[in-house]
Amino acid sequence: MPSLDSFKSRRTLDVNGKSYTYYSLQAASENGLGDVSRLPASLKVLLENMLRFEDGKTVTKDDIVAFAKWLDNKGKDDHEIAYRPARVLMQDFTGVPAVVDLAAMRDAAKKLGASAEAINPQVPVDLVIDHSVMVDNFAGPDSFRKNVEIEYERNKERYEFLRWGSTAFENFRVVPPGTGICHQVNLEYLGQTVWTKEENGETVAYPDTCVGTDSHTTMINGLSVLGWGVGGIEAEAAMLGQPVSMLIPEVIGFKMTGKLPEGATATDLVLTVTKMMRDKGVVAKFTEFFGPGLANLSLEDQATLSNMSPEFGSTCAFFPTDEQTLKYLRSTGRDDDRIALVEAYTKAQGYWREDMPDPVFTDVIELDLSTVVPCISGPKRPQDKIVLDQAPAQFRKDVKVIKGGAVSDDKQPETRGEARFEGEGATMVKTEPEDYGIPKYAVPDTDYHIHDGSVVIAAITSCTNTSNPSVLIAAGLVARNARAKGLKVKPWVKTSLAPGSQVVTDYLERAGLQDDLDALGFNLVGYGCTTCIGNSGPLPPAISKTINENDLVACSVLSGNRNFEGRISQDVRANYLASPPLVVAYALAGSLHRNVATEPLGVDQDGNPVYLKDIWPTSEEIASIMAEAVTPAMFKDRYSDVFKGDEMWQGIEVSGGQTYSWPPASTYVQNPPYFEGMTLDIDAPGDIEDARVLAVFGDSITTDHISPAGSIKASSPAGIYLQEHQVSPLDFNSYGSRRGNHEVMMRGTFANIRIKNQMVPGVEGGVTVHYPSGEQMPIYDAAMKYEASGTPLVIFAGDLYGNGSSRDWAAKGTILLGVRAVIAGSFERIHRSNLIGMGVLPLEFAEGESAKELGLTGKEQVSIKGIETIKPRQKLEVEITKEDGSRITAHTIVRIDTENELDYYRNGGILHYVLRNLARDAA
User: Fold this and answer.
1) pTM surpassing 0.90?
2) What does the record give as cofactor (predicted)?
3) Does residue 412 register a pLDDT over 50?
């Protein structure tokens, strides 16, 4: 629909002989909106969206004026807007269930009297298959080939389904397996900074914006593309033309000055910023970088920062456009006309960084880049930064907590000499666990031992760092220098290299560094998100057995963005984020007890100690190799036919027409039950009476705790289901790969091995107590017993409920288990939205109240009345009947924040809302 254009902002921009129509912020300012030049750049992108989509209904003149008012109140006044992103990005773990839902909606649309073809993406959608490769094979020249073959074998049903989707739906493209991580493909190829569209004979130019079904969609913010992660259900609505309902956010400015010192990497910067952001508290806010220090960061450095926005807790982490943007677009082979348009458009709209006055922000954080030092983060949260030379001491403290206070030896490991990362030599070389004064355990059929703190996984993985040539080349140089001195990776370390794109292989090979990485066991294992999401593959059986029989706290070191407990490997309880070169260093050291900053990593051929400083490259060396090895031709070549795929992809047969023929025996893809019995009339949710408590959780329950991820245990409800359907444990694959089958996923909801339900004190894993029987059982089994008796369910939780990745199954599984409401101390943004999108009521305890303060044990019955008439953010009382019959009242706030969200909730979810509207339009 054409914009009403109340502020007469429609203008023409001429660039290189081409004419573009655009909606000018400057023109709007001159025509009554007022001066908006000091708005943060990210809000200027949103403001343009309002100007372009003003229709008097979903976007009104008041919505546009609210941006001018934002400058007066710095975002402290809530104002709801309807935002329409230019496109949608998916990865296959979250994308498969989204396409499953679209296919199911086509079936439901036919039953409601609409055409199946009405269910079709209305904006461009790109799905990148990057989350299915696992590190089954490693440290060998054919590891990549073998892993890809296994990937296709495991995922045959899923890939057949996605091939069908790529032919059945318009505006929908699939990037085949083995290409790269969706965020890096987005950064290197899909993202344009400024988008264009032919409309009524004109070429309209507007900001490139997107939402994605992966929380790290924010990585594209580094290219001045406003994007963030949403749940699969929100993404589906955006695909179907529905706006993203949101409040104009507060924006936290992050001012950077200075320059990174020698020896500090972009990863060290990222981990430093992550802690600062979490300490500040930026959940549900925009963050935006500014200041003179940005001139000293490459765009790849900026993208590395933007990637970690979910770890900050912020919605996005935006960078204005500048010379670095243009340099990157050129270096990755983008079209010259597009690059010229990016410069002209962003200058015209007032978010070219060098021309911008310092924006008005809600609040500001400052960092002098010269103060950044080498660091890691762990053992289970990205914000738990540890200065590198303090890592062993911190591990000794953390292992006590991990083991519940039982640690075998309280002595700090002895450090001999005065060796520092920067400095002088030492005489003592530690080579074995006994040097640290801690118990060691022999690994069967080997000549080595492992211990608490042994590094058993060292993985260069994930989009966070593999978008950045500087740290990949640094890792290669550390490997080269270590190899030259005769150092070897410890034999108990599982090593892997999973680049974000094929271009990484090109420049590592051109520089001759891949040979050095291969020599240390960092062979290519796949192009995708592996260890960071739990696709680390199994440890060698002897190592796994030794860890579990002796209750060892084994460690992983990875260059990813997530290290939540239970995520990386079920055998590994302490996980550390680090730069790629430090991943190599820890693989050489083999232990968190080894102080890699101050102690030798090993000895050279002559028996002399080798320190990290001896093999660490200078920034000048790194820059020199980058200039020679990374070329625009590599990007042009790799992305010239990116949707074609290899022979295995091309050989997948496609069957089915506009609706999918659901294979009844498939254990990967099943028609979900969300739309069963649905009618055109709204059956609004009613009061919740005498509900039972399914679980009582503490603080920081992540979507990894809630949503099934990683491997499937044979003894779990999901494992039993698969075996009943003739799937052997060897062929279980991962939960992520089976997200298209609701029967598997609902059985795995709340089944994380590290989740702690306070209804069963001292027990880890997805168990609960069923009432009134008092029987302890898996959460899924209890939910089915409650369903059989017609008993509704609620969950109590602490603060930051649902933080982490944008896992739509954390909400889908919740509703399928019969949970009607979640009552928590606070919610992370995406999960709260997803709960509403599936028809689950999110309630937030009033200040001063919590499940703990109220003395709740899970034995209570819960009633919530007045649901039919609730309003956004209203106060609502929850009646709680205790086991002895006494009653108390919990005071809560309805965390349905907008009228749009209320519409979704009353319809039973966002997909039901869209379906009803489409069916009515068809009628």
Assistant:
1) no
2) [4Fe-4S] cluster
3) no
